[in-house]
Amino acid sequence: MQKISDSNCTSRLYCVAGHLFRIRLPEDSLLWNRLGQYDPFEVKPEPAVDPVAETPGHKVLFEFELTDGMPQVEKKPFHISEPQDGFTTINLYETESGWLFEFTMPSGHYAEMLASYNFSHARFCPHTTNSLAVVPLMNNALMLLYSFASCPYNTLEIHASVVSNTGQAYLFLGESGAGKSTHSRQWLENIPDSELMNDDNPVVRILDDGTVMAYGSPWSGKTPCYRNVSAPAGAFVSIRQCKENKATAMNLFEAYATLYSSSSGLKGNTRFADLIHPTLERIATTVPFIYLDCRPDKEAAEVCRKAVCR
Q1: Which helix H or strand E contains 237, and what residues bound it?
Q2: How many CB atoms lie within 10 A of CB 34?
Q3: N or C: which end of the chain has fewer CB within 10 A?
Q4: Alpha-carbon distances, residue 23 vs 58, 99, 101, 133, 143 (angstroms)
Q5: Largest CA distance in the chain
Q6: SS3 label, residue 152
């Protein structure tokens, strides 16, 4: 990795779900050409923003900069992940000045990110010169940074596949392998006027008027769907594989628990958990939640549409 200094760096401003963030890299870095998924979210020309403003859209939530070295810090384990085949392992530590993230890809490529306590600033250090490995490591870091920095503003990053239809967004939730992407594809192929908004990590935000909005994001898993689009949330649908197709409404407790397990956030920290709880509660009491026991077929999409499009 090339030596980095302030004199040869440049920055670009992005907006996801109405929240601004800045990426700072060397001006001639090859990484800029590999970050095309962020292009739909770039803000040009940059507006005048207040770094200490309290209103989203008028302040930069966080700044993310590339560095060629990381200071030695004492660290206390906060969350240590169990390695899973095919997935990047992410470990999180508390330090005297903030949070230290360690990212390890299945290939062994490794990076660190040191973030301030409120996640307003982060330094990212990839311990590899392979730019093809640096980008997915950066994506993991930016996705987590966005999730943690935006949670005070009634915003959740959701593990879901989401389609839009009839002017509303329908978010399909479930564990990995449950069939979220498959069900989205059934909508795209069989429900007219359906469009994919995001296939892995959409953002949900409660607006000042109480509207729950779903947004596309630069993070979409294995599906390259990086769309700067939004729509009011019409329903959250928990996908469960079954031999029959059946939709069942959730009660409030089930809705809250489903959304909690599907959303990112620093839930093990009391301060951040307290910030997330009101958002979860308001969404669970505002938008319909249903279970969809289903097969991976056309009828499943039709059953789901009938349940949510009312």
Answers
A1: strand 230-241
A2: 14
A3: C
A4: 17, 19, 18, 18, 12
A5: 62
A6: helix
Give residue 271's identity as a one-letter amino acid code. R
What the block records as the tokens of 186 is: 């059934």
Question: What token pair was written down for 49?
Answer: 């923003």
Distance of alpha carbon 289 from alpha carbon 305, whole angstroms: 13
Distance CA 263, CA 219 (A): 14
Rounded to whole angstroms, how far apart are CA atoms 250 and 247? 10
CB 279 within 8 A of CB 259: no
Q: How long, in residues, is the chain?
A: 310
Amino acid at 220: S
What is the amino acid identity at position 273? A
Q: For 38-64, how does the pLDDT look when each residue is reduced to its tens digit (9 = 90+)? A: 999 999 877 777 666 666 667 899 999
Residue 216 to residue 218: CA distance in whole angstroms: 7
Cα distances (angstroms) measured from residue 135 to each of 121, 129, 185, 285 = 19, 11, 27, 38
Q: Choose among 217, 170, 175: nearest CA to 198.
A: 217
* pTM for the full predicted model: 0.93
In this structure, which amino acid lies at residue 4?
I
pLDDT in tens, 144-202: 999 999 999 999 999 999 999 999 999 999 988 889 999 999 999 999 999 999 999 99
Would you state the structure tokens that stand for residue 85, as one six-digit string? Answer: 């085949």
